[in-house]
Amino acid sequence: MSKTILVTGGSRGIGRAICLLAAKRGWSVGVNYVHDKHAAEAVVAAAARDGAKALAVPCDVAKESDVIAMFEQTTEALGPLDGVVVNAGIVAPSARLVDMSVERMRRVFEINVLGAYVTAREAARRMAKSRGGKGGSIVLMSSAAARLGSPDLYVDYAGSKGAIDTLTVGLSKELGREGVRVNAIRPGLIETDIHASGGEPERAHRLGATAPMGRPGTPEEIAEAAIWLLSDAASYTTGAILDVTGGR
Ligand code: NAP
After folding, report:
1. In angstroms, how far is CA 61 from the centroid of its own chain?
2. Which atom of ligand 1 is nearest to the CA of 161?
3. How many domains does the chain have?
4. Which residues, judged by CB distance below 6 Å to any ligand atom, belong to the binding site of ligand 1?
5. 236 catalytic, yes or no?
6. E strands, 46-91, where?
7. Which position among 33, 117, 154, 157 bears the catalytic label?
8. What tens digit of pLDDT does each residue of 141-151 get?
9. Rounded to a whole number, what is the distance in angstroms from the first to the last CA of the chain?
10. Can you give the CATH number for the domain in which 37 is found?
């Protein structure tokens, strides 16, 4: 069945791969970005080449008013949403907790935790059947870091993803009878630009080699899991946290 979805951080990396795979299925896609409009427009153009409707939507998920405007803009252009992928996230350069400033930690938590909670709230407000919605699926992007802790790298980021796992458990129970499924994916080391923003562009390659499968993953491999969780094929799956880590 054709769907309309919104992907935060849909312009690059994992979010981009989810948007492109959704478009290949003929789904309509809201492609959120915060800085790189050009990248978001390239995703929209690629979706259009596949015959899908898509829209680039600016929004800093750390700003509540931006998030609300993003939902309004997307539904106005594409219609009511069937799915929301809460994917936007950042890491800061590698450091131990003893050397982390509160400003750095605040930024990580504002985007990765508050941004995700507010995005999930807006999705729930629109999709819950008791509020006039038609039900749907929320997919949250956690990380293997939530269970590994990421010592010497970014325990702030790891903690922010622990919050995502907890939100998945709690919100799935709140929305169980509302027709809204809530699941999370914990990617392992995936080849995207996020590692460069953490100060080591080659990190996915270097550490990916130590995963049981002996390699990093691709954004497309995460997208396959996300599209399944969004689809009707996952109709009895809620509250699940799916590791897509090559066994890591
Ligand atoms: P990425 O390549 O760095 O892309 C990040 C995306 O998020 C971009 O589209 C970016 O938009 C957007 N974004 C960043 N801050 C934002 C904000 N404040 N508001 C709205 N959008 C924002 O990252 P990625 O590797 O694809 O990561 C996507 C998600 O997967 C994140 O939640 C990350 O924690 C998680 N994850 C990644 C890995 C991995 O190895 N790559 C592993 C586990 C979990 P602009 O381009 O406009 O800045």
Report:
1. 11
2. 34
3. 1
4. 8-9, 11-15, 32-36, 39, 59-62, 87-90, 111, 115, 141, 143, 187, 189-190, 192-194, 197, 204
5. no
6. 54-58, 83-86
7. 157
8. 999 999 999 99
9. 34
10. 3.40.50.720
